[in-house]
Amino acid sequence: MNPVELARPEIRALQPYSSARMEACGGSVWLNANESPWPSRGAEKGWNRYPDPQPAALRARLAEIYGIEPDRLLVGRGSDEGIDLLVRAFCAAGRDAILVSPPTFGMYATCARVQGAGVVEAPLDCNFALDVDAVLAAITPAVKLVFVCSPNNPVGAGAARAGILRLAAALEGRALLVVDEAYVEFVEPGSGFGSVANGLDAHANLVVLRTLSKAWALAGVRIGCVLADARVTALLRKVMPPYPLPVSCVEAALRALAADGESAMRERVAVIRRERTRMRHELAVLASVHEVLPSQANFLAVRFADAGAAYAALLKAGVVVRDVRRYPRLGDALRISIGTPAENDRVLDVLRAIPNLAERAADLRVELPA
Question: 3-state SS string over 291-353?
Fold first, then answer.
């Protein structure tokens, strides 16, 4: 089935805006876009011109990294823009809906509600794992997009590739399955929780979201990708603003994505994985901690005897963590990103020093395996 048939009919029929840069072909004197012929004072050369809507060099490099063809890749302003474009293209206000599995990333539901679309829930199971059968049981004819966050935010649990691909097959012709892989670079090799991007050939209704904000350390640059059937990426371009990517951001991304930048990224990810293991062991023996949830991401969700007191103690020491107590089944939890070894040590020192808990924590501490 052509996945675009699930989109809003008015979007399928839409004649997209054609920008001056898209229509430009050759030439050395550009007078087609009402741009300034001079750069602004102190600006880089070329900044007076509108950027390429989908920079060829950036798309080619990202396609190489993700192992897909460039026409299956749409570059935008972080994963958030991809989520918004999908909801606007596939969900009509007052008629269509998305499905989410809480606790999960809040932007899926936010984008749906801004669009006037419904939100159907199929919660994660008791271990915060994706419940494929529960998702399928919750599907209604209104659901056009099913969002799966893997690894999950704010918990950190991965969704098994086999389960995701089974879900994609079961949703064929009914809904798009959108897998948000913002944290997938941090997954332990061999865990079974890796990327499903290589499933795009077999499942035309599968969409994968990727970002440069996390492992690639470019959160301030705001670049993310939608990986999908080429017909889906072409449809999303119809509703995408004409010039989404600033030239400076594209240049920064290309520098980071070069071979030496990729090597540096992989070294940092390895450090994060090691620190994640260390922090899980060290946090788990603190008397103030009830549980450290398993994580495949660059953070840990930690249950506290008194999460409010732990948050306040960390903040007083200048350490800012995320209070996730508003999420379902996380009413006693904080989300702690994995920082540098020194930053992680500071977190541990603060939590060990909470009154009346330091002595017991020291008694319970264990040695990590080599």
Answer: EECCCCCCEEEEEECCHHHHHHHHHHCCCCCEECCCCCCCCCEEEEECCCHHHHHHHHHHHHC
